[in-house]
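Researcher: Go.
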Amino acid sequence: MSQDIIYNAQLLKGVLPMLALALLDEQESYGYELVTRLRAAGLTSIAPGTVYPILSRLEREGQLTSRLQPSHSGPARKYYSPTGLGLDSLQEARNVWASLSHVVDATAMTSRDRAPAPELP
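Model: Structure:
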């Protein structure tokens, strides 16, 4: 069996900004480096064309800041890091994810283990 994990595109679309902010909070990165880090985290089939629009949107919204760094192997690289607003958004996203994952775990992941609901009189 392949180690690649297939993710629902809509679910992934909803969590990628949070994942990008979280990884950039740990270490500023340029776009392709972030793609590599996401792949290393388990999103093995994530494409650069998926990540770059998210970085652009987060920067446009003021959640990321960027700086150009000369590169010895080609054009300058654009390094991203979260702003205060981005860190606030990250914390809010983490809180929402924690609540949602609790509901999913309590409902969908254990539904076979739960006793059936009692019948109403």
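Model: The helical segments are 9-26, 31-40, 48-60, 84-107.
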